[in-house]
Amino acid sequence: MTTELAGEAPLAKVKSRLKRALGPWGVFFEGFLKNPVMVGSIVPSSRFTINRVLSAVDWDNTKLFVEYGPGVGTFCQPVLDRLRRDGTLLVIDLNPDFIEYLSHTITDSRFVAVHGSAADVEEIIRAHGHEKADYIISGLPFSTLPPGVGPAIASATYRVLRKGGAFLVYQFTPRAGDFMAQFFKRIDKGLEWINVPPCFLFWGWKDED
Ligand SMILES: C[S@@+](CC[C@H](N)C(=O)[O-])C[C@H]1O[C@@H](n2cnc3c(N)ncnc32)[C@H](O)[C@@H]1O
Question: Could you tell me the Gene Ontology terms of the biological process aspect for this record (predicted)?
Answer without folding.
Answer: methylation
